[in-house]
Amino acid sequence: MSAPPARTRMHLASLAVATALLHVACAVQVDGAPCSVPGKTVDCPADQACGNDLRCSARALACAGSMCTPDATYCSSTRTALAMRCDRVDPVCGKWLEDDCGARGMECGTRGSGACECPEPENLVTFVVADPRGSPSRSVVPFPRGQANPRECTFGRLADALLAVSTGVASTVAIAGDPGVPAVFGTATAEPWPLVVPFNVTLRGAQAPVAESVVRAGPEPSAAGTILRVLGSVAGVRIDGGGARGAGIELGCGTGGGPSLEDVRVDGGGSVDPTGAVTAGLRAGISVLAASCGSRLERVAVSGVAGPAFDVEASQSTQVVGGSFSGSELGMWLRGGSTTLSPDGTSRVRVSGNAGLGIVVGGGADLMAPRATVPQAAIDRADVTLNGGLGVLVSRLAEPGSSVTLTRCDVSGNGRMRPFMSGGGDPRQVGGVVLSLGSQATLAAFAGNRLWSNAGDQLVIESDSSGWVIGPSACGADTNQFTCVSLGAWALRIFGFGSVSAQWDRWPGPTDNPVLGYIGPNVTVPPLGTTYKVCAGNLLPGEPAVPACLP
Length: 551
Fold this sequence. Notes:
Blueprint: H1 6-27, E1 49-50, E2 56-57, H2 58-62, E3 73-75, E4 82-87, E5 95-100, E6 107-108, E7 116-117, E8 127-135, H3 158-164, E9 171-175, E10 183-186, E11 195-197, E12 201-204, E13 213-216, E14 226-230, E15 233-235, E16 238-240, E17 247-251, E18 260-262, E19 265-267, E20 271-272, E21 278-279, E22 284-298, E23 301-303, E24 308-321, E25 324-326, E26 330-334, E27 338-342, E28 349-352, E29 359-362, E30 376-380, E31 382-385, E32 392-395, E33 404-407, E34 410-412, E35 420-422, E36 428-436, E37 443-447, E38 450-452, E39 457-462, E40 468-470, E41 481-483, E42 492-495, E43 500-502, E44 523-524, E45 527-528, E46 531-532
Parallel strand pairs: 8-9, 9-12, 10-13, 11-14, 12-15, 13-16, 14-17, 15-18, 16-19, 17-22, 18-22, 19-23, 22-24, 23-25, 24-26, 24-27, 25-28, 26-29, 27-30, 28-31, 29-32, 30-33, 31-34, 32-36, 33-37, 34-38, 36-39, 38-41, 39-42, 40-43, 43-44
Antiparallel strand pairs: 1-2, 3-4, 4-5, 6-7, 20-21, 35-36, 45-46
C-alpha cells in the first residue's frame, strides 16, 4: 500500500494536534460559571462550589464548611453584649466579624435578631431624639428607641418619635442633625400626614450648629390635609409646604390643656399670579380649632399662603405674642372664639405685604356670609402695613355677643393694589379701617392708633346708629392720629344713618381748623370755645409720633 500524499499527511497531523488540545482544555477547571445556591456544588464543575457571589470557584468549595451568609448575625455565647456579623469583605466566603454592642451602648439580640439592638428604656419615656439620618423604622433592627447615642438608636422618622414618648407626663421630642445643614423630615423620611404632636409633648427643634429643623411636605395627595396637628407644644421648627395644598399647622385641644407655638415658621410655598393673587401654596398657614382650650403663639412667622396666614375658627382664648404674617393672600382672619394680639417686648405683631386684606374680624366682606360670634378680638400694638387690600375689616359680627378692641395700632400704606369700596350706591375707596357694626357697644376701644398713607379714606364706620365717639377724654397716649391723607380722601367718615363725634384726635389740617376737609358728613368735632376738641401743636407724653408720609 502506498503512503498518502504529503498534503493529506499534513491535514491528519493538524487534526491530531487539535484533538489533543481539546482534551487538555476540558481537563482544566475554570472559575466563574454562574450558580444559584451558595455553598452547594450542584451547579458547578467538579472540585468547585457556589460562592456568595453566585459564581463557581475552587475557593468556594474550600470554605464551604465555614461559609457565612452576608449580613447574618448571632449573639456570642460567651459575651452577651457581643454580636457576630457576617461581613461582605470577602465576597466569596463571607467573614465573621465581632460587633461590640456594649461599646456603643447597645445590647445583643434581646428581641431575637441576633444583632446589636437599642436597649429598651426602663422607665416612662419622657425624652427621645429624632434625627433624619437615624434608623428609618422603629420596628426593624436595631429597633431604635430614641436614645441620643449612637445615631442608629435615634428615630429616623419623626412620626415614630412622636409615638414613642409618654403623654401621661411632660415629654420632649428633640430634633438632632449634622452641623451646618438642615435636619429635614417629611416625604424623604416617609412621614405620614398629618404628623401629630400629642398633648403634654413638646417637639423641639435642633440647637446650633444644626442649621434648622424642617418638616417638609410635598404635592402627594396625603398632604392635601394638614401637615402638623398640634395638641402639645412646638418650638424652633419650620414647616415647608413643599407643594402641598393643605394647612401648615392646625391647633387643637388635648385632654388637659391647650397647644402652643414658639419661634415657629410656616413657609406656604405660594406664588403671586398675574392678577396679584397668591396661589399654589398652602390653603392656610396656622388654623386654630381649639374651641374648649386656650392656645398661645409666640414669635411665629407665616408667609406664602394661598389663603389666610392665620385663621381662628374656634378658640376659648388665643394669644398671639409678636410674630409676622406676611406675603399671603390674607394676613389674619379672626372669625370665631377669642383672640388677643400683643407685642413680644418691643417686637410688635406685624401683618404686612399680603396680597389682599390685612386683618379680618368676623364673617368677612361677603354680605351673604353668616355672622360670626367673636367674644373678643383684642388687637393691641399691631403693625398693619403695605397690604394690597384694606388694612382692617370688622364686619359680619353677631351683635350682641362680640367685642372688638383696636389700640395703639399702626395702619399704613394699605389698599394700593386692591381697592376696597364702601358706601353702597355712592361708594368710596377706603384703605385703612372699616368698622361695619350695628352698635358702638361692640367696639370696646379704638384708641392710640395711627392711620396714615392708606389709599382712599382712612377710617370708615358703617352703621345706622348714632352716638359714636372716636377719641379719648383728653390728648395723650389714647389720641388717634390721622395723617398723610391723600387729596379728596377723608380721614374719618360714617356711612349709613348714624353719626359720629371725634374728639381729642390729631388731624392733618392747619392748626386753626385741622379737620377742615378731612371729615365726612355726619362726623362732628366738638367745639371748645373758639376752637375744637383736637390735639394740635407739640406731641404730649405717650402720644404716637407723627410719621413721614409714604410716597
